[in-house]
Design a protein that fits this description.
Elements (H helix, E strand, L loop, with lengths): L1 H8 L2 E2 L11 E4 L4 E5 L1 H7 L1 H8 L7 E2 L6 E4 L4 H11 L10 H13 L3 H14 L4 H11 L2 H15 L24 H10 L13 H13 L43 E4 L5 E4 L1 H7 L1 H13 L1 H9 L7 E3 L4 H13 L8 H13 L3 H17 L1 H11 L2 H11 L17 H37 L16 H11 L17 H7 L9 H27 L7
Parallel strand pairs: 1-3, 2-5, 6-8
Antiparallel strand pairs: 2-3, 4-5, 6-7
Helix pairs in contact: 2-3, 4-5, 5-6, 5-7, 7-8, 8-9, 10-19, 11-12, 14-15, 15-16, 15-17, 16-17, 16-18, 17-18, 19-20, 19-22
Protein name: BTB domain-containing protein
InterPro entries: BTB/POZ_dom, SKP1/BTB/POZ_sf
Pfam families: BTB (PF00651)
Length: about 550
Amino acid sequence: MSESVSDATAPTIARHPFNQPSADITLRSSDRVDFYVYGPILSQVSPVFADMFSLPQPSSVSRAAIADRPVVDVTEDSRALERLLRLCYPIRKEKLEKLGDIVPVLHAAMKYDMEWPIYLLTTDLQEIVPRSPLKVWAVACRCGLEDLAQDAAAMIAENAKGDSDSGSRRKKPPRRRNNTTAQAPLTLLASMLQDPEYGKEVLRGISAGDYFRLREYLRTGDDRPTTNLLSPTTDSSTLPNDPSHESSSSLPTSLIPLFPPPDVILRCPDGLEFHVHTLSLVLLSPILAERVQTLISSSSEPQDEANAAGSRTSPSLEMDVDSSTLSIMLAIVYGGNAHLPSDLHALSSTLIAANKFGFAGIAEAAQDRWNILATSRPLDAYFIAIERGLADCARFAARKVLEGPIAAIYSRTMESSTALAYHYLLEYYQACASSINRRMEAAVAVWNGFLNNIQGGGSYYSSVVRLENAEELGMCLKRLAQKMSTDVPTSNGCSFDLTLPTLLRSSSTMWPSQLAPLYKEVTGVLTDISTDLPRLVADAITEVQLEIE
């Protein structure tokens, strides 16, 4: 039986030319295919292999039975590995025309720092740009190929111009475009993301920052990107840090009373310990109360022996939370809510830990602080909440994003967030805008119905006087909703002023110089509309759901 199992798991040997007995190295693929290769060739092509072969063989490199040839296990499958090796050897190269064939090989070439294969594969990708520019842009983002990303983005912009002469001033010769009807580049991008050939999955594995820069380039309408598409717009050293990496993780000793002395130790995974009071924990956290009770019960006998010997050691409780967050939590336990952090990253960690360990009061206070910070920094709050898995916090922040413009608004947190999260936010914003627009149209219909009644012969006033520019109010309401757009940076979001004085000012040019009763009647209609509109806008937003993975 053991022999059959061994045969079933034995590696197979690759086809010519990677089966030469004279080769001095064996590369074993993830699907257990052995490639006999020549170390000097790989050393010339790849600095990574050159360094590997110049060092003593690590424990992960075994010895093959044949010719005592070292075996190096690699993560690539046999198909990708063979294609990569063919690019390294002076033999016929396989022509790769599909993204699915090129990408795994390109990833491997970049992993092993193979300059020549990277150049060849990038050239193959350049030929695919006219057919699938968005997919090639996505590959360029994942592989960090700036020039390729710019070419793909420029092709999307070029395709948006349709069959008309684009007047392109591209660095490279113009290439064949897809025949499309002229449309806004962002409209084309939206349709591509809805197309079965692309779909939103093309955004997976890409940062929100890269997606933002693509959209900004398409929105501005430049022939070529004027800034890098794949580089952060700010120094990466200024990006927000995870709170677990912050150096400030010590709890101020002045917060912890020395009498009575601390009687339990909380130990974090990084080895940092906090000496605290059992009573402070059990009063605020039922979860820790139970754990402390279990700890004390299990250590009661050794503790009695220690007491008899004249030495007392506090029991130790392992805490599955980073020391920075635990320090903040304990500062709140001993010093109150004034110690709640104002940094969104640290606050999110505090909220998660408070819920995890059952500190209900701290969780509630942290949630209130989050809502305050998210109101002033909704985009940062949204991306951080998505990153930390705080769905309710993300929905609250997304609702606050609606109150201002979203086009051309950049956040440093985009660099560590996903393009899909940003795309879902844009979809939510646009869906809310459409929903609000429908409600606004209903309000306009109410106003127009009133105008038809008083000016179309259905009212006493229609035979005496006609309102001037009466349709201006309806146009004003329509413009409010239409300005809420993911593509227009001057949008004010859904922060509409829908109070009665505003509506009266919007319709001030229609008032006649007589007939106070008519003025009163019109004012009554405007009052009704003004009363209903805020509720209609709120209802419009409520009926839209934010998609969260």
